[in-house]
Amino acid sequence: MIAASALAVAAFALTLPVASQTTTGWKLVWADEFDQPDGASPDPAKWAYDIGATGWGNNEWQYYTARTNNARIENGRLVIEARQESYLGSSYTSARLKTQGKAAWTYGRIEARIKIPRTQGIWPAFWMLGTNISSVGWPQCGEIDIMENIGREPARVHGTIHGPGYSGGGGVSGSYSLPGNVPFADDFHVYAVEWTTNQIKWFVDGQQYFSVTPASLPAGANWVFNQPQFLLLNVAVGGNWPGYPDATTVFPQKMLVDYVRVYAPSNLAACATNGLVNPGFENSGLASWTVYGAGFNTLLETAPTLPVRSGSNVFKVFGQFTGQDNYSGVYQDFAVSPGQVFTAEGWALTPVGDVIAGANAAWLEVSFRDGTASLLKLFRSALVQSNSPPGAWLRLVVTNEYHPANYTLIGSVTNLLAPPNTAMARFQVVFRQPGTAAGAVLLDDLKLAPRGTPETPVPASAAVNHNQLQLEFPTFLDLPYAVRWKPSLTDGPWLPVTNLPGNGGLRTVAVELQPAAGFFRVLRLCDN
User: Fold this and answer.
1) Ordered DSSP codes for 404-463
2) Across the 528 residues of the chain, what is the mean pLDDT of every consecutive 10-residue run?
3) Which DSSP letter does residue 293 get?
4) Which of 65, 105, 133, 181 has the most CB atoms within 10 Å of its CB?
5) Distance between CA atoms of 315 and 518, rounded to whole angstroms?
């Protein structure tokens, strides 16, 4: 048997990346670039078809087929073609492709570059449905419409969610028009959503135009967007919303899809909290940081004056120009106990117009100190120096251990371990200027995280297949997950079944069923 409390303890959380919107913070996990030979069907490993002329809940007129007449590859693009022709009792044909049974995702950035068709009665769409539609039905499964257009509105696209209590004409929706009301069918555009825990944002060509959260729903309605969804691409002919073809309608009509891409977050925050206060210099500037050096050379800067990695502010530091070896920067001190373990990192950039020069260098540093602030252990990151690429944000991870007496390199470590007698830790930004060479360094998104092994329950679904129990659950890219079991909820600790990395989509684990009943749970392992 399955313990419901163990399978669905908490919603999966994200702490949560023109040709396309910038995807900083996102990593590509699935794509179709439609690079098969001309005339080929779409990749059957990625796409299935809906077939038939049921009206599809909207009184549509087309018959959806799997023929290359209606869905094929041309010039590196997917073509979905709506045709006026007699076919199995219908007067129109088209295609509706889906990844159902082949790929699905919970959260991520989903985008496609599309040139939509035009004309009265035509209804192109790029959208998503919950994988549980076969068990709970629509709209309980949830629907995310990434892009819809109806032919009578050539200059407007819509983004909508449908769920229990807010479906059909009552869906929660926003719309977007191009400057000057240019028809969308005139060119390709990138349509995207960024879907995270309790929020969905819509974009056209990188411009966000709409977002929803649970607070956007009608009173008492449930947010159902915390389960896997699959993708759909289709062109409908007619329907309650777009109306029907008339004397002005022209056939055939084609939707061209240049690509479809799915991204998982690549910058998911660690499970442990950041020990630093004001790590991105967003709260009252340099508040919580102690400044050292000359003062004039340790500055808070803002976008767009200088590059900022996130937020609005960035810390800038350069030399004191004394002609002698000098050090400048900021630091934070806080209480630490012996045996505590940390990881530390941050981001640095030397600006194109003020590149660090000469023997100047900058780095991040973590030191452990006793009750008198005497140095016990010292760790540093790699250096930003004159050969570092200008204009690029560089990730600095504090891994190099130095001798606390003579500052010689001892070696590289993964964990920063507080030694005996530790009373405090210091996280420090250092800029060293041994002479009078020019150049500056910008720093942002600094982090000192205590390591630990907290565990976050992950919602999972279960099905019995012969003598196996199949557990399916959503994952974040590259983060570790564990499946555990126990014969009784009152018996001792949870026992390991398997550990595995997340892939940004759904993972499935098959467990051999035992004669005795068992309880299973899925956990995200948050060891930093």
Assistant:
1) TTT--EEEE-SSEE--TT--EEEEEEEEEESSS---EEEEEEEEEEE----EEE---EEE
2) 26 29 70 97 97 96 98 98 97 98 91 97 98 94 98 96 96 95 96 89 93 90 91 98 96 98 70 78 85 95 91 94 96 85 93 96 96 92 96 95 95 89 93 96 92 69 85 79 84 82 83 76 70
3) S
4) 105
5) 54
Provide CB contacts within 8 A for 374, sequence distance 6+.
Answer: none
Torsional class of 365: left (φ above 0), alpha (ψ -120 to 50), beta (otherwise): beta
- Spatial separation of the C-alpha atoms in residues 280 and 209, rounded to whole Å: 27
Sign of torsion over alpha carbons 173, 78, 46, 64: positive
- What is the value of pTM for the model shown? 0.57
- Would you say 311 and 317 are in contact if contact means Cβ atoms under 8 Å apart? no
Distance CA 49, CA 69 (A): 14
Q: How far apart, in whole angstroms, are the C-alpha atoms of residue 510 and residue 321?
A: 65
The candidate with the shortest Cα–Cα distance to 195, out of 481, 476, 501, is: 476
DSSP 8-state symbol, 8: S
Helix (H, G, I), strand (E, B) or coil at 352: helix
User: By the 8 A CB rule, do 124 and 235 touch?
Assistant: yes
> Do the beta carbons of residue 255 and residue 115 sit within 8 Å?
yes
Which residue in this structure is represented by tokens 């879907």? 195
Q: Is the peptide bond before 139 cis (omega within 30 degrees of 0)?
A: yes
Tokens of 365: 């540093």
**Catalytic positions, written as ranges:** 143, 148
Cβ–Cβ under 8 Å, residues 149 and 157: yes
For residue 207, what are its two tokens?
């411009």
One-letter-per-residue 3-state SS of 165-194 = CECHHHCEEEEEECHHHCCHHHCCEEEEEE
Q: How many CB atoms lie within 10 A of CB 521?
A: 23
- What does residue 44 show for φ and ψ, rounded to 5 degrees? -70, -15
Q: Is 204 helix (H, G, I), strand (E, B) or coil?
A: strand
Hey, what's the torsion of the CAs at 99, 100, 102, 108, to 10 degrees?
60
